[in-house]
UniProtKB/TrEMBL annotation:
This is Secretion system C-terminal sorting domain-containing protein. It comes from the Bacteria. Residues 13-102 form the Secretion system C-terminal sorting domain. It holds the Pfam family Por_Secre_tail.
Length: 103
């Protein structure tokens, strides 16, 4: 049986935000994996580089960071207009997307 490499999920917190938010990449854990012992935990490779882009509601690039390491980065949104932004992350061959609400 072939097992695909683990998938990742994008977490944006706090969301909504008015000042600063953290974008994190976490391994996706299924119910079965969660119920297994912790000896088979799935972890992210903290040395793998990843990129993040944030777009406003007009699909204009608002922020771009490249070659990040670790599982998270902070984004300052103090000067951003209120609205919904699209967060796009490229990590380990995957494209992860999410929404960020700025108030």
């Amino acid at each position: 049986m072939y097992e695909a490499p683990f998938k990742s999920v994008l977490i944006v917190s706090p969301n909504p935000t008015s000042g600063e938010t953290t974008v994190s990449i976490e391994p996706e854990v299924t119910k079965d994996e969660f119920l297994k012992s912790t000896s088979t935990e799935t972890t992210l490779d903290e040395n793998t580089e990843w990129d993040i882009e944030v777009y406003d509601n007009m699909q204009s690039l608002k922020l771009k960071k490249q070659k990040l390491k670790g599982k998270s980065t902070r984004i300052g949104t103090q000067s951003w207009k209120e609205g919904v932004y699209m967060v796009r992350v490229k990590y380990n061959g995957e494209i992860l997307t999410g929404k960020l609400i700025v108030k």
